[in-house]
Structure formats: structure tokens, C-alpha cells
Amino acid sequence: GAGVSQTPSNKVTEKGKYVELRCDPISGHTALYWYRQSLGQGPEFLIYFQGTGAADDSGLPNDRFFAVRPEGSVSTLKIQRTERGDSAVYLCASSPDPSSYNEQFFGPGTRLTVL
Amino acid sequence: DAKTTQPNSMESNEEEPVHLPCNHSTISGTDYIHWYRQLPSQGPEYVIHGLTSNVNNRMASLAIAEDRKSSTLILHRATLRDAAVYYCILRDGGGGSNYKLTFGKGTLLTVNP
Lengths: 115, 113
Fold this sequence. Notes:
Distance between the termini of chain B: 37 Å
Mean pLDDT of chain A: 95
Radius of gyration of chain B: 13 Å
Helix content of chain B: under 10%
Low-confidence stretches of chain A: none
Structural class of chain A: mainly beta
Strand order of the largest sheet of chain B: 1-9-8-3-4
Number of strands of chain A: 11
Largest sheet of chain B: 5 strands, mixed
Distance between the termini of chain A: 37 Å
Number of helices of chain B: 0
Oligomer: heterodimer
Strand content of chain A: over 45%
Number of helices of chain A: 0
Helix content of chain A: under 10%
Order of helices and strands of chain B: EEEEEEEEE
Shape of chain A: globular
Strand content of chain B: over 45%
Number of strands of chain B: 9
Shape of chain B: globular
């Protein structure tokens, strides 16, 4: 079956621009997560959705970052006024529910480069 | 989340077993031990998880120490496709923020042909 997909796979933008990154989770998965991975590091948690609502956005680095999931399926991570330090791979994952014994299924990520 | 400690890198030869260690001395009674791996240019992939007993699946085995302060991921016959970064992660089964995966730097496994 189809896994988690993310678009675009690569995004190059200029400092100060606005970007949107999209995540299509596995159908039927109620839990959706965004992580960010800098070069040489493990992924870091950004935000978790249960259904349509953001249950935990404590990992978002600042108010330039925002994410939505209006219909409980597709999610969009939005970054305003991008900075060079935002360059990273942004990973999306989904799971049937958030319980600790359920695996998270990751997408291939979007590589964001801010020039 | 409790912390885990893993070697930065390990090397193996193809078709030989690989034992990837993880220390988690501050593990709590409700923490599950999860392993994920990340192949080059891909997102992380679930490998296996356990609570107290050793676990086997088609990908690997997980051996958990009796005191649960350490665990070992065992790949029985390494292939070139197993070359990846392997992450050992604790997840709280008692509630709280157990939905988060807290990744460290993991162990970079190199498999030699």
C-alpha cells in the first residue's frame, strides 16, 4: 500500500521567503508528526497532530513555524521569513494512533535549503 | 524521556552477525525500547521494539538485559542493504508525551562486502 508521501522532495528558497511543505499520511492514520533533521543529527520532534488538532506543538522553534491539518489527513508545515538556519530535512510520520507501542511510518522527507 | 547511549559507529562484514548495543541506565518501568534505522537519503524505518522480554521479527532480534539498563539489536546476517544509522529510543508506555520519538545521534553501521 501507499506509504507516507511528502512534497516537494527538494525546496530551494531565498532568505526571507515563505515556504509550505506538504505531507500525505497513510490513509486512516489519525496521528501525524513532523520532525526536522539537521546534517549529522537525529530527527527532532516539531509537532504532533491527533486528528485535526495540534496536540503538542512544543517542538516548533519559534512563531515563524506553523502547521495545519484541516481535515485530519493531509498536513502542511508553513515557514515564514525563512532563515539560513532553517535549512534541514523536514520529515513527516504517521501512525494509526499515538500509543507507545505503535510504530511511526516516515516519509522520505523534504530537503529545504535556504540561500 | 530517558536518555540512551550508543557507539557513534560500528563496522561489520557482509553475512556476519552484528550486535548493536544501547545503554539506557535511567530507564523507567513503563519505558518501551524501540529501534529505528535510517538508510541514506530516506526517512527512519521501524525495526523492532520490546518491553522486558527478548523479541524477534523478520528484520532483527532485540535482546534486553534482565535489569533493562541495556539492550542489543542483533542483525543475524548483515547485508549491504543494512548499512544505515541505527537509533535506540525509549518511549514512555505510561502516558505523557509517549507519542514523541526522541532520537539521539545513533550508530552508523558500515557493512563491508
